[in-house]
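Summary of Year 1 activities. Much of the first year was spent building the evaluation harness for sequence design. The harness presents a backbone, in tokenized form, and records the residue chosen at every position. We chose the following record to illustrate the format because it has been used consistently in internal testing since the harness was completed.
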């Protein structure tokens, strides 16, 4: 059996200020990008047609056209604000237009027909093929947005309740804060990469939440076991020990998931790449938050609201001074 990183004694908690500073800077950069995109495109996130409502048309050409020619042709058809993007290669493009274009009083159902007619007139009917067209009303888009937000919030609430029952409320609060960090950092990543937010991406977000929570729960479960065995150790020492003990499992699991996701990103179709990007980033941010967010937050909560009696599930008393001065406690335990 492959055995790696066994009996390690790294101090993962010590650089928590640097780690939190770096992730806060990344999240703030993401929000700056959201503001830039809002000013430039009129929408902070690159929402798919499923959320905005309108028409999505995928067009294939026999000869690679210039994107400016496509944009001018679609604009002359009554959709000057349509978004045109290359899709996989230089001969396929996606055109996203709202239900009614500026200067053309047309219904959403007529958008695809008008765009197709304009392209065929410009490039020739034999040179243009409409691969697919999707039409979604704005009301449906609003409903999908609302349901996506509700699904994410419900997952956080259920997680808090589960962890409060499984461990205690301190562990549940730390895990939910770490998960909220994952959502914010992923949102920043979406903004920086300008990835299209579709239902597939929402599914990836929920998957990242579950993945990150699973990693955090494994570490917290080991913390609970170690608290039973070593009642004299500080929580700082126990946290570091638990992370080191679960490190071999974490490395192998994260590497396997990252390898599979990277394969989808490289060899998968264009439509699945946003999902692959989010999953790949989720492996990184989920691992990061389980170590550098959940642990320090649990220490802070323990310091702010110290336990005065035996913790639920067989835990131990942890003096507030041990949490307030973790480095001193760690050095004392080492001696």
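For this record, the design step produced the sequence shown next.
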């Amino acid at each position: 059996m492959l055995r790696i990183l066994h009996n390690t004694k790294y101090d993962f908690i010590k650089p928590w200020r640097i780690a939190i500073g770096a992730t806060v800077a990344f999240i703030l950069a993401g929000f700056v990008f959201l503001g830039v995109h809002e000013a430039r495109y009129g929408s902070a996130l690159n929402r798919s047609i499923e959320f905005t409502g309108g028409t999505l048309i995928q067009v294939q050409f026999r000869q690679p056209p210039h994107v400016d020619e496509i944009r001018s042709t679609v604009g002359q058809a009554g959709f000057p604000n349509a978004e045109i993007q290359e899709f996989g290669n230089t001969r396929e493009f996606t055109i996203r237009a709202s239900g009614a274009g500026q200067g053309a009083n047309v219904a959403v159902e007529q958008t695809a027909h008008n765009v197709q007619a304009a392209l065929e007139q410009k490039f020739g009917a034999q040179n243009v093929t409409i691969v697919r067209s999707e039409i979604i009303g704005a009301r449906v888009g609003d409903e999908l947005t609302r349901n996506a937000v509700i699904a994410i919030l419900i997952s956080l609430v259920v997680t808090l309740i589960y962890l409060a029952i499984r461990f205690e409320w301190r562990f549940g609060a730390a895990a939910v804060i770490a998960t909220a960090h994952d959502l914010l950092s992923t949102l920043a990543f979406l903004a920086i990469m300008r990835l299209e937010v579709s239902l597939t991406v929402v599914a990836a977000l929920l998957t990242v939440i579950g993945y990150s929570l699973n990693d955090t729960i494994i570490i917290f479960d080991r913390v609970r076991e170690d608290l039973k065995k070593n009642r004299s150790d500080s929580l700082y020492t126990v946290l570091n020990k638990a992370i080191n003990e679960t490190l071999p499992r974490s490395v192998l699991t994260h590497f396997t998931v990252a390898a599979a996701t990277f394969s989808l990103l490289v060899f998968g179709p264009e439509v699945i790449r946003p999902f692959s990007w989010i999953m790949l980033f989720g492996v990184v941010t989920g691992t990061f938050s389980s170590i550098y967010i959940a642990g320090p937050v649990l220490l802070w909560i323990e310091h702010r609201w110290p336990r005065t009696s035996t913790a639920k599930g067989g835990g131990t008393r942890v003096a507030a001074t041990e949490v307030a001065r973790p480095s001193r406690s760690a050095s004392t335990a080492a001696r």
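The first strand starts at residue 46 and ends at 47. Quantitative recovery figures across the full test set are reported in Table 2.
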